[in-house]
Amino acid sequence: MVESVDMKRVESKPMIDFALSLQGQIPGLVVTNTGELGSNPEIRIRGNSSLRKGNTTNEPLYVLDGQVISADVFYNLNPSDIKSMKVLKDAAACALYGVKAANGVLEISSQRGYNGTKTVNYSANIGITTRGRRGVKMMKSAEKLELERLLQNPETPGYRYSADYYNKYYSTDPNLETLIAEGEEILNTLRNTDTDWFEELLRTNVYHSHNLSLKGGNGETSYYISGNYAYQGGRIEGNDKRRMGVRLNLDHKLGTKGYLMMSVNGGFSKTKTPNGTKNDPTSLVYELNPYETKSGSLWSYPGQTYYELTHQYSAESSDKNAGASVNISLNPIEGLNISAVAGLDFVLGESNQFTPSTAYSETHSGVPEYARGIYTKYKNTTINRTSNIRLTYNRQFGKKHDLTIGCNMDYYRTDTDSELMRGYGVGTLNTAAAINQSLQGTRQPYVSAPRDKTAQLGFGGVAGYTFDGTYDVYATLKADASSVLPRDKRWNRAWAIGTGLTPTKYKMLANLKWLSYLNLKFSYGQTANLNGVSTSQTVASFQYSTSSYENCRPLDFVTLYNKDLVPEQNITSDIGLSAEFFKRITLDINLYSRKTKQALLDVPIPSSTGYTVLKRNIGVLLNKGIEMGINFKILDSANWRMTVGANIAYNENKVLDLYYTDKIYTYEESLVPDYEIGKSYDMLYGPESLGIDPMTGYPVFRDGNGGEKQASSTLKKEDIVALGHLTPPYTGSIRLSSAYKSLEFDADFYYVLGGVQRYNYSYVRNRDTATKNAVAGQTEKMWFRQGDEHKTYWTPFYTSAIAEENIALYPNSRTVGSSNYLKLSMLSVRYRIPSGWMKKNAPFVRYATIGLQGSNLHVWTKYNESDPESGQQAGTVQPVYTFNVNLTF
Amino acid sequence: MKIYGFLCAIALLMSGTSCSVDVPSPDLYSDPDAISNVQSARALLTSCYLLYPHNEYEMSVLGNDFCPTSLSGKDIDQQNLYNWQDKSISKLSADMWLAYYNTIANCDVLLERLPSVKVSGDGEEKEKQAVESEVKTLKAMCYFNLLRLFATPYNQNPDGDGVIIKSHVGLEFCSRSSKRYCVEYIRALLSDAAKTENNPKSNGWLSQKAALYLLSDLELYAGNYQEAADYASSVLKGTATEDYTGSNYAHLWENVSCKARIFAFSIGNSFYSSIQYGSKEGDFMAVNPHLLMADSDVRRSSNEYEMEMAGKRRILLGKYNRMNKENKTIVYINSMRYAGALFILAEAKARLGLDDEARTLINTYLTAVNAGIIPESISGDELISAIIIQKNKEFAGEGVNWFDMKRTGSQISRLGSWGQSVSSVIKSNDYRWTMPIPSSEYKYNDNVRQNDGWHINVE
Which residues contact A572 (CB under 8 A, 6 or more apart)? Predict the structure, then answer.
């Protein structure tokens, strides 16, 4: 199953992250934003194929012009350089890529030159990015001060200056009345300040991108040259991303029997962020009080100033990449094609992190002043080498028979070389030169330089036969070896078979008016998956460490290994139907099932082994689903064109079998197994809440027998129910295109359905956290005293340790929300300036279009905490509005 | 066309010959060649030494070594641990369980690979034997500590649950062996180790004497007093009292090798810093007033540190704490000292009924350090108690006392600030003397039994 991405639509989305602009383009290709601008997205084809979470094990393989490229290079591709992009989903398509392609393949072909006059094209998008959706509405001063009074925390002004406070602590003071009056005055001043921190901390920013390309050629040689630059500012100070890239593609004919293609490309991208693991200025939107200002002292962060809070940390990361590839294609005799590709892809990733000595975390770390300030620098070079040779022989005979046989050999090698340096005592200087090298103990300078090399070698064969364009069958077989596995079990096999039928070729169906095309397909195959497995997990491995003992250098045993480890086996079957009705409506339906046998997982093991987890082949996992796409050409006349398209993908997963047990708990405190036979593995579990008990102020849960259970009693497994899917099972898009003469209008909507996210309620304050701002309406919705009925938030006064633990550890049915959303992900209006006008006024321009384009303009969702997509308060895709101009000379 | 054919042939040849999947990771040494000579075996052993956990401070907080200070309330975790709160003990026990078994697993990794280590010449053969002896001693130390932490005292039903004895590196779902079996297993390891004549120069390597010391400690634990006395005597053989008193005593808390030590862990990280709240403000814990030394005692200047806290001169712990306060780098953590062997010998003799010998031994030492001696009127059980009190004083803050108190079935008092009052007493039969098997074990191992009194928090 191979599907092509509509590159024109991708190009119409003004956004700097190329990968994110693929969202909703192909059913089953799910792209999810994971945080602020510049963070790596999550790209999955038909869900997670592995029980192991994360990109390393579930990300597809990226191939550019036959050459494997790393994910970082893919994220920063320039959409204008791409001619076509294909998504390979099933075993039949992926089998030829072997062990690397277990999660599907994204095949990209770059723009090439052509035979003809030289064409120069310039396009630009210039505009703004806005703050995005306001997730949670926070309190204004008057409400916050009233809440503080109710919560009775003397560290908050609302209580400290209230009459309640004076009456309690100064009841015998002769000046009581004066004190209360003075307090009231202070409170009044505070009430008159209303800072909207959403507006203050977040900002609108600029977006611009420029692209210049040149193409042309003569009979022998053709070329394509391009350069691009894009910049997107983040919504918080210190967050932005820029990238630039150049590309040169050269094609040359080799006599009459072949040609040579060469590509050279280079790129640069840089992301800055003020958000670290300990500090997150975006969260200040939900923490700073409305009665506080940028210049005054802060009740929410006593002893710190606004400037200090927003200058705690800075990080910068950049990727520089360069690639070159050569492709020789020869047809020595008719029907035989030999092609060889050799490619090199180089990425230099650099990042530095800086915590100044003035950061609160440093001034309160207990280390002496000369040792404060942390500077970390990390460099990583990755070199991917690809070489492959393909021989394909195709022959048609007897007018109805079409036979193809082929074989290939490919070799991939990845070398990574990293350096990490961390030093202390840099003070406020963001440079390695300021590191205090004389420090000893925990703050002594640290250097490490891990390297890794892996290689894969594969041999494959393919055979296909088509009869009369009506029936086709094919088979592929691939054997490949990985350097990660011990020598004796290095070789893996991948294979696939497929068959297809086109009934509209039958005479009886050929003349049907309503059915212009019908094709049915079936494929079945198996691929192995070794992603995320390292040598040290399969065989005892040792590594020198940086510490020392009696002046001896220790050789560390890396980790507990599993010598029985084998690759995961993905068995995929796929049934597809493509049809066209009235030559206007196309319909594609695909049903798939992917069974992952020998699924790998880091499973907890008894700690008496000395270790807590071990990578094991633990069971069988099933992903199945359906993908549907429909496209309706409503109007297609000389002046009017209009098309509506929609697609939907559904994915469900289930654990079919576990080899050693029937359930696996990955955390010691888990009440419900994370993996259990017959259950989905991305469920969120917790008790069902019946609401807040008016007597205790804590929730009442429904227990296993249908009765009631107070939150203050220990939860049992029977009390836990499934609250919903963390990964939304339904995703899809709706696309609209219309044109009238020279005016074009396009819009894309993206939606997800059926998932839930847990509310973290960090903006609901209790007595201890009352110093920080709270969600608007909390005073109304919170339980404060016995008899308060129909409340949403539980008691702010800590009265039961078990209840607090139950609420903190497990979400319940009232602390999760549906993460369904609908996003207007692209809107584009373009006008092509009539050629007559151009000839008169700007004769040097051949074609010109101008337009307005926007991306991620609006999100409709019921999820009322921050961002339903990333589930984070910091991370939401920013809306971008731009003016677009495209000129061809 | 010919030239293109030629080019293609070169391309094919280049890609064909450069393809190999035999690419070893450059910084990783993997079996079977990783541990093949004595140098790499020693390097792996070094890593095992570094993995050994150091909970000397936490065990002292649990023991009778300290009393709270005016600052104790500032660190609620330490205060909870001092008060033997279930949750704090559970957390500490989980950390220690994993760390000791991790060290054991790494020792076993080395032991499983030692037979294939090739040697050339006598020097290398000796070194290989030394490595084998040291790794066995280190492994025995881990098991011995686990047994003392996680099993009830030996004299209460020696056939009751001990700890898990691993048979090989890797996944096993073992049940707990009996205490008797554990002792036999540890004895076998140490007896093997003690056969090798290994006398390294630095304090950081486990010598033959260290194996003998551990044997004497093990036999004392198991109630075999004659054997304990024999082993302790052989440790002390050839050592004069001067070697571990006077200036040699002071060297124990300085960053040099010293004669008074049998074995000490070499460290590169900070140690014992948890006791201090702030260099100006003072410590969370002070020395238990019952364990203070006499003014004339020569050990006093090392063991105690005077500082003004809450408006008065207070006696805080010296030793490592003093080194931290004086910004001296801690290089060694004392693990076995000659004084320890002397106390084992004295106690064993007293328990064998040889009161005079025991008293003479201990009094010779006390005289040498200028401390008050044990009068002749004291004998029998009283003498044993007096010896143990002296031992507690000697080892205050070194994480030793808790083990002796558990072994001898003592009760422990939890004190108020500066030890001026007793806030509670932990009886000798309290379930908390036996640490709980952590959930990281019982949750994933159905064959293991939890200790009495501790609940399994998740079913």
Answer: A90, A91, A496, A523, A524, A525, A526, A527, A592, A593, A594, A595
